[in-house]
Amino acid sequence: MKAAGILLIVLGVIALIYGGITYTTHKKVIDLGPIQAEKKETHDIPLPPILGVVAIVGGGAMLLIGGKSR
């Protein structure tokens, strides 16, 4: 329970710092035998700040509950 709480806190802080996930895909534009052209497309997945806050609070709650039960 302690490890899961710490992991949630770390993930929440990372979510607040970066604010989203960015990834790149390669799309083939032209394919004429030996002539090929590709286009890089960047996509963003925004993460709302409340998600990071909820993860931090949930991780803290897990640490507190795990500490009191023992």
What number of domains? 1
What is the β-strand count?
2
Poorly predicted spans = none
Helix proportion of residues, in percent? 40-55%
Describe the protein's architecture and organization.
The chain has one domain (2-68). Helix content is 53%, strand content 36%. The protein is built from two helices and two strands, in the order αββα. α1 runs antiparallel to α2 (49-68). The chain has helices at residues 2-18, 49-68; strands at 20-32, 35-46.
Describe the structure in brief:
This protein is α+β, with helices and mostly antiparallel strands. It contains two helices and two strands, in the order αββα.
Element layout with pairings:
Elements: H1 2-18, E1 20-32, E2 35-46, H2 49-68
Helix pairs in contact: 1-2
Key features of this structure:
two-stranded antiparallel sheet, 70 residues, 36% strand, alpha+beta, 53% helix, single chain
